[in-house]
Amino acid sequence: MNKFAVSLALMLACSPALAEPLEQGTVPYGDLDLSTMTGRLALESRINAAIRVLCPQGDIRDLAMQHYVSQCRHVAQDSVDRQLATLYANKKLAHN
């Protein structure tokens, strides 16, 4: 089964010198047809769920935590976007 090599490389927002990922996740996609919009939307839904797990909301009253969550999700989404672009470039979208 294919696994989306989504390295959700999450860095501590307060420690830019940290170069190692703190959390990583993989999202399986072998069961999806990425040549269809339905398959791509399903993959992106799985990815968004993984990001929410790796970057949980936390206490909304804690502004420092909210900043961290925002940075965490931003870094994760940037990593995902680059990988999706490469993955989709290799799979032409079929016209339905």
Major beta-sheet overview: 2 strands, antiparallel
- The proportion of strand residues reads under 5%
- Low confidence ranges: 5-20
* Secondary-structure content class: mainly alpha
Our Rg estimate from Cα atoms comes to: 15 Å
Q: What sequence of helices (H) and strands (E) makes up the elements? A: EEHH
General shape:
elongated
Strand order of the largest sheet: 1-2
Quantity of strands, as a count:
2
Distance between the termini: 25 Å
By DSSP (H or I, 4+ residues per run), the number of helices equals: 2
**Arithmetic mean of pLDDT:** 75
Fraction of residues in helix: 40-55%
Write the layout of secondary structure elements.
Layout: E1 3-4, E2 27-28, H1 37-54, H2 63-89
Antiparallel strand pairs: 1-2
Helix pairs in contact: 1-2
Describe the protein.
Helix content is 47%, strand content 4%. It has 96 residues and is mainly α. The chain has a domain at 68-96. The longest helix has 27 residues, at 63-89. Residues 5-20 have low confidence and may be disordered.
What features would you highlight for this structure?
single chain, 96 residues, mainly alpha, two-stranded antiparallel ribbon, elongated
